[in-house]
Amino acid sequence: MHEGQERFDTIVVGGGNAGLAAGYYLRQRGARFVILDAGERVGDGWRHRWDSLRLFTTARYSALPGMRLPIPLSNQATKDEMADYLESYVEHFDLPVRTGVRVHRLERRDGSFVLTAGGHEYQARSVIVATGSQRDPRIPALSRELDPSITQLHSGEYRSPSQLRDGRVLVVGAGNSGADIAMELVKDRPTWLSGPDTGHIPVNIDRWFSRHVAFHVVRFVGVHVLTMRTPMGRRLRDHKMSSGDPLVRVKPRWLEAAGVQRVPRTVAATGGRPQLEDGRVLDVQNVVWCTGFGKDLSWIDLPIFDDQGEVRHERGIAVDEPALGFVGLRFQFAFASDVLPGFNRDARYVVDRLVRTVDRETKRSSVAA
Fold it and tell me: Which domains does the chain have, with CATH numbers?
């Protein structure tokens, strides 16, 4: 081991919900591990989202293993309640989280994984990547052609309407974030929502029936039915990987009733203004890009990717690196793998597989010695 290098059984990269769930199961298995997170404070991934955000799932299905959320089970936590819960979770289980540590490189060296973070190196026998599948803000190139007087924000930066100039706003991206933000902005300004209809869940998730009955059914289907083990799940995975998710809280008729104007895709900039697919040019003072996040795993310097840049894995275990696992990938095993109800099972499975792999390698090394 190089001087100044720390060694662990397992290193978890990412201290959000998925990473902490993995940490819980590693603690149960008695592993010597550390969780590295780029945020300055546990829960920052939630704190830095828009102020009015509430979870879709109820507290019953939003908790991490071993500890319930400290709110009524049928309530939907605010983003700050979830952030504070994650801090309490780390303290309760004494999870070894190091904040402010951004991993820049993961490689193999002398038979071990080596992670570089700034000027420090960490060595591990196994690694769990729990940074999430969608973390880097994705903003179309046409944003650079818009007039500088137009205020532009990505949904990852948006907190409240006070960040915007007075006047009209175009929300680009008609998924859940775009619909939620458009409903907030239209209260005091003309608002356009640009993008195709991705469908919607027909029930009102904020009503009693949904919180107490419908969520049970939806969770069961998303976790246990729509999986890689079922033909229906495999077909849905192929569709989900190339399309947007349906609207969950906001319904299309709510947008219409509130005065949000639905328009086609935003495809270009003309005269410094956003141009729609149908040729219209909108004179707006603000643009909020709800165009999602892209995954950046370029810091992983290992031959684990296919020709499309996707991780070759089987239920979160890298095919070409059996001591490298992932938690929180989109449709990693089930429809719910990248959302709260699905993290826990995937984390337990990945931890169990990695612990067994490391144990086998240790026994082989002992015999060889």
Answer: 5-135+295-368 (3.50.50.60), 138-289 (3.50.50.60)
